Fold this sequence. Notes:
Layout: H1 3-9, E1 15-19, H2 23-38, H3 43-46, E2 47-51, H4 59-66, E3 76-81, H5 84-89, H6 91-99, E4 105-111, H7 119-127, E5 129-132, H8 141-153, E6 156-157, H9 159-169, H10 173-187, E7 192-193, H11 195-202, H12 204-218, H13 222-235, H14 239-262, H15 267-274, H16 278-287, H17 290-308, H18 314-335
Parallel strand pairs: 1-4, 1-5, 2-3, 3-4, 6-7
Amino acid sequence: MSAKRQAQESKSVPVYVVHGAEAFLKRQAITEIIDRLLGDADRSMAVSEYDGSAASLELATVLDDLRTLPFMSNYRLVIVYDADSFITRYRQDLEEYIENPSSTGVLVAECRSFPGTTRLAKRVRAAGEIVKCEQLAARSVPSWLVDRCGSVYGIKLDPPAASMLCELIGDDLGLLDAELHKLSLYVGGRGRITVSDVKSLTDHYREEKVWGILSAIAAGDQSLALQLWEEVWQTDRAASARAISGIAFSVRKLLNAKRAQESGASLYELSRMLWCDERQARAEISAFSADQLEAMLCRLLEADVAAKTSLASVRSSVEAFIIEMCSKGQTRRATG
């Protein structure tokens, strides 16, 4: 059966409320509603979207849109994103609308919270659908990945590979799903994703974040550098064993590029050495002198020794290094 035929035979309800803390699951739920009701109809002609957090959004605007006859489709979908404040402002009016809704307009409200004991919730439940999208517990994410990989991509994901994905990337379902898509293309017709596949394709995330710490230090952005370090710490259980060496590797890479520049290497060659574009390579190489980079390596060695002799934790040592280097960078820029 074609998507268009399915849409023609799908029975609509006048209102859907999609709520909860998990943004990816809410996006998926809204996509499924659109696909189910519109099939292959032109979305630009059948879907309107509004920002519910905007104080300027009036209920009359939304209702007029809902009552506009659809063109080249059976239904007209009006989606109000981030609708918490919109629902609060117009709760009674929405209750009245649901009692006498448009026959062809479908309201989809996306919000974070939608208490089930309110009169509005009871009316939505009676006339429409409420879709709850709560954030998954961390322990449940690997099994969710296994199920999604099979149902959406038609590929078996080994449970240890699912656990490794979570360790490398964290519990952001959107990022994890994007990685599943890449992995499904990577393994092709083999039909199975293993730990080896995950290591081959996704371990660069931690390396990119570690390199990002150095880039943030070069820009003097202490807040961003500390944020990236926190992400490395939270998403990499082996961070305590390799964090300092990872940052030191990035510093050495930049130092080698600096020396290559002094020897006459082209900007293109330098960008290849740093795995970035020429503009970024120029900015990062100019942020430090070779002496400063060598001093950073010495400081990292001291931090590594302190962590290994229990004089300080790896986490606090790296944080102290970031704060110190950003402070020195600000001093360099102020006197430069």
